[in-house]
Amino acid sequence: MDNKYTCTDCGIINCQRQNSEYPEFCPTKDLTDEDMNELLKIYHEENNGEISRISAEIESDFYCRYTRVEEIIEFAKRLKFKKIGIATCVGLIDESRVFAKILRKNGFEVYAAVCKIGAMKKTDITDIDVEKTKVTGNIMCNPILQAKVLNNEDTDLNVVVGLCVGHDSLFYKYSKSLVTTLVTKDRVLAHNPVGALYQTNTYYKKLLRED
Fold first, then answer.
1. Residue 96 to residue 4: CA distance in whole angstroms
2. Residue 147: how many CB atoms within 10 A of its CB?
3. Cα(187)–Cα(184) distance, rounded to whole angstroms?
4. Considering only CA atoms, which of 76, 97, 80 is closest in space to residue 88?
5. What is the DSSP string of 15-75?
6. At what angle do helices 143-152 and 167-174 cross, to 10 degrees?
7. Which one, of 104, 87, 97, lies nearest residue 168 by Cα?
């Protein structure tokens, strides 16, 4: 097993604090002038610099004041976006309806695509056993089609609302527009996945057990 040290093994965090020295394994320490110049070029491509600036401004202007919903609205407004796509899980359609209403009240055009769009069957597309579909049903989540539908609508920004692990990955992969996430799916923890991390000393000790 590879025990190479990475950022989660660092207790210094000098990249943020700038009050110490970088550990030997730190990627920041090994960056060359050529590396930094290449990064700067990328940040000046298209609107990467503007996105970075606006993200930093929102963090500064509304630190610990704005909810995620409000931050998304402010981000879209400052980038002068007009049309927002919502890639939603069918299980969070009510939440997405509320979100769409809020977006429209703030002057945005909204287009949503639900995960079951296309009504394709899991058993037709994958080699999954039909027995495996009894709990959740045989209609497949379709993140690729969600992305294609929103691409066809020329959305300026797409917002993920509760897509499953892996399905969200495919949506990010095929979306032509910028993507941000409003809700991360966690059926057990009421869509608050970080709760499992907070509880590793009590209820979720099992997560730290070695196989």
1. 42
2. 23
3. 10
4. 97
5. HHH-SS---TT-TTTT--HHHHHHHHHHHTSTTHHHHHHHHHHHHHHTTTTS-HHHHHHHH
6. 30
7. 87
- How are strands ordered across the β-sheet holding 178-183? 109-114, 83-88, 157-161, 178-183
pLDDT tens-place string over residues 48-65: 999 999 999 999 999 999
Residue recorded with tokens 């970088």: 22
Tell me if 161 sits within 8 A of 88, measured CB to CB.
Answer: yes
**Model confidence pLDDT, tens digit, residues 95-113:** 999 999 999 999 999 999 9
CA atoms within 13 A on the CB side of 193: 8
List domains and CATH numbers for the chain.
23-65 (no CATH), 67-211 (3.40.50.1860)
* Residues 6 or more apart in contact with residue 196 via CB below 8 angstroms: 186, 189, 204, 207
At 196, which amino acid appears?
A
Length of the chain: 211
**Has this prediction a pTM greater than 0.85?**
yes
Structure tokens at 88: 């939603």
Beta pairing partners, 112 = 86
